[in-house]
What does this fold into?
Amino acid sequence: MPRRTPAGFPTEQQIVDFLESSDRPAGKREIARAFGLKGQDKIQLKALLKRMAEKGLVDKGAGQSLHKAGGLPRVTVLGVTNVDDDGDIWAEPERWDSDAPVPKLRVKERGRRHPLGVGDRILARTEQAGRGWIAHPMKKIAPAQDELMGVLHEEGGKLWLKGLEKGNRRDFFVSDANRARPGDLVLAEKSGRPPRVSARVTEILGDPFEPRSFSLIAIHKHEIPVEFSDEALAEAGRMARHDLGEREDLTHLPILAIDPADARDHDDAFWAEPDGEGGWRVIVAIADVSYYVRPGSALDKEARRRGNSVYFPDRVVPMLPEQLSADICSLKAGEDRAALACHMTIDRKGQVKSWRFSRVRLRIAANVPYPDAQAAIDGQADIVEPALVDSVLRPLWDCWSALFRAREKREPLDLDLPERRIELDETGRILSVAPRERLDAHRLVEDYMIAANVAAAKALEAKAAPVMYRVHEPPSREKLVALKEYLASLDVPFTLGQVIRPDTFNRILERVGDDDFRPQVMEQILRTQTQAYYAPRNAGHFGLALGSYAHFTSPIRRYADLLVHRALVGAYNLGPDVAETKLTGSEAERMEATGEAISKLERRAMEAERDTVDRYVAAYLSERVGEIMPARITGVQNFGFFATVEGLGGDGLVPARDLGREYYRYDERAQALIGEDSGTRYTLGDRLDLRLVEASPISGGLRFELPEGKGGGTKSERGRRGSRDRSDGKRRKPRRKRNR
It folds into this structure.
């Protein structure tokens, strides 16, 4: 093992040699110990390691460990990804921050009684063999999901851990509390073997009922990175002082940013004026994040690792350090900012006739909240400076009217699914939970963004440049068949032989009109849709009825948009600093893998945000346990149905065993539970009154029962609200909506 040479401080090569020879993960501390470095030498070592990382000599592994760039630590954690037809087992490093392609290792097992399978985690010794890598397993590691998060409670003189998952009724005996007390929110790991599995507390997180604990629970549960590396923070400080460079100057234009009143970052702004030919000249200006976050940098690695910002009611976990996301990149009024502008010409029919992109310097005239923009355009005086209303807002609205007509003609999928807005006081306590107001101002910004996103995709296609598309594929035949069977149970016709377009589903909703079962039809149509994702291969955006679509408008909070910006910079030679800020060859090569990764991270963020909102809703409703409240059925299974409180959200179960003494048959096609004797139906989307019997802020779970209590209601008032008319037993025909 190398040691400090007589010449003094270790060389870069000696450090690389040590990292390659170490039989355990090694970081700055281990290197200092190996070379006998103390005091001031450790500070010099930190600076040397930083320079080595910047030069591409070393990469960071798990935790604080380091290894030779482009290679692997000698000992590291791997995840099994494939077992091929020949029985060979292949694995990948659980963490990989290098710009080089992720290595695939062939796992050599010896004498193992239980072969490894896909999803298994192992601690392994790695070895390079020719151009490939081999992994020698040292031990199998418990799956990540074996880590538990829960709340401690005392019962029978013993401590127990109650998990946070909805529907998880199992408590684990705590074998080691690690100084935690009853009521503490903790992280724990499972120990022992079934059936005698216990929990060992590894970290105390605090009071689970503190107002701001709900998002903290989601952050820990979904393993969302919160802290930025020292390298990334230092780099953000340096880049924040970077000169804007030579750019197209738009500081003379009164460009407006229109955002939520509580927006934490501002990455888009708009301007429009008549072109004298019945159309408009439009600028959609987007924060030029690619100028500050450069390929291969510490900031870039952090952004790629996070994939997107995660938004909670009480906080945001940003993709970029706040010095960039909330300050230097954010388009704030009165400040000179760097932006990438999409210049468009839009005709009187709302068609985008031409576009170009440029890097610009701009100075936002005002940051206008959505309600204020709407109020100003509706005629309320002094909400927004009158000069800005006349010079910018009205032209923006006039042009948007044409864009909206073009959108209506295109007929994208039109599902009215309101978002929930949680209002908190200064201490984080819940003031209200209500549907988020949907204004024309929201639609205006949305349609300008869609136009710019389409322009970005088509501009890159015109140069045959790489594109990170936002893909939304048409529904699968399997899901369409399920929808057809479901609609048949409601006497709503749906033909499978037709070409399925977004307006196909809009026509279904028009046939249903305002009937009682409209929400359940809308719910089923939503479930029929595929999940959108990112990929370099274009398959169109079904929901928006667009052939080419790429996310361009939110690079502060989405890594996909940052890649699109870099691709535009390279394809159109957009200065300044083109060579340092364009999409690199290695980035282009790994676009598919990057698309898969950021799509997973997006789903992780959505789950974390949804879980947190559910916990806030449960906390809000916990003071109303025992009340009867209007609800809607959101899911039906053979064991019962799930319902949500109208206007608030949150899901709770009504078990089939609590519906009455008769047997309830589950009709999967109709998504209904049907009483064998009474014919009472509980169907997806039905509205009914339910009593709230439990609301758990810790899990976010709710539990309901019928107003009459358990076992009641087989011939209840509820029976008249389903999709079958009790007076004659016949299914009601949906009312047709009049042509508009």
